[in-house]
Amino acid sequence: MLLIGDDWAEDHHDVEVQDGDGRKLAVAKLPEGVEGIAKLHELVAKHGGKDEGLLDAAEVVVGIETDRGSWVQALIASGYQVYAINPRQVARFKERYASSGAKSDKGDAHALADMVRIDRDQLRPIAGDSEQAQAVKVVARAHQTLIWERTRTFQRLRSTLREYFPAALNAYADLTLTSTDALELLIKAPTPAAGAKLTRTQITTVLARARRHHRDAKAATIQAALRERQLGLAEPVTAAYAATATAHARLLIALNEQIAGLEGQVKAHFLKHPDAEIYLSMPGIAEITGARVLAEFGDDPTRYANAKARKNYAGTSPITRASGKSHTVQARYVRNNRLADALQTQAFSALRASPGARRYYDKQRAREAGYNPALRQVGNRLVGILHGCLKTRTRYDEATAWSHHAHPHAA
């Protein structure tokens, strides 16, 4: 068996090759791309020879700190066992060697090789997801990342307006400041003086392009709010703030555009997946949420041995901490945040869509569980139901899903 630690950078890979006993066989710096993969195969061929023939590809184990990209797919296509290892795990593992916190690419490659040799049973191999599932993952993650970026940009804009133009926050509160029409009005009048001069016709025209209802009433409210008296700043300072707010507003408009475009791509790729029908049958899941859950779980049928394994990966199942007389049950905080966010959204929506989910939630609350712990329990139960549906290739059925919790005294 050959163990390979692969520390990747933007344009190269530092690799270390070990044998099954941990002896260092080779260290190399490989270029990114086809040339680098070819040289890696040469290293495997050179050090993987046996008396009876070459080493089988499945006996080559690679540890790397990512599960995405053409390099990783090339490793999987070659038949190697590939383990994606969290960088934080690598950092903790390196503390076995020293506690100084020193870092080097060669040192990381050595740690990765050691990890797949010593702790391979504790690591998760990269799932063999289908090409369609990989496509869903790419667009779903990109879509969510842009939404997170929009939220950060909005917070910056809001903070800026509070410092020099608080009337704008009140004026556009009903429209929401991330909406394109509110941003267009802010760009048109980015200072208190310019805002006070906006006419009702100008405001109504922008609202009409956004197809707002009750435009005349909304325009009157916005105009009145913009004309309220407020504390002012020196003109050069106000102009500087206005330039900053305008830049943020233009960026938010661009983000709105790209988010809407990617949303269509997420839905299109998700609906082409053969599991989409099962996901959409689940309560609280629509196309975007379903795409995010599918993207993070993947579709490799061998990845989760049972429902418990899927729940553990989802981070919805609690963990127990026991030491001496202390015994506590806590939520999992080290988890896939993208998946946790999607499952939280599903669980919240399921309270209205599923009577069974609502009864189960109320039962947890009756046991004095807080809002978030009770919602996590609903999400945990829904993950188990999803696992069963995917395993049996059946759609969600309300009566079957909650049959064990239908009786008022059921656990």
UniProtKB/TrEMBL annotation:
Q: Which organism is it from?
A: Streptomyces coffeae
The name on file for this protein is IS110 family transposase
Q: Which PANTHER family does the protein's record reference?
A: PUTATIVE TRANSPOSASE FOR IS117-RELATED, TRANSPOSASE FOR INSERTION SEQUENCE ELEMENT IS1111A
Domain Transposase IS110-like N-terminal, by residue range, is 4-166
- Check the record and name the NCBIfam families matching this protein: transpos_IS110 (NF033542)
Ranges where the Transposase IS116/IS110/IS902 C-terminal domain occurs? 278-361
Q: Name one Pfam family in it.
A: DEDD_Tnp_IS110
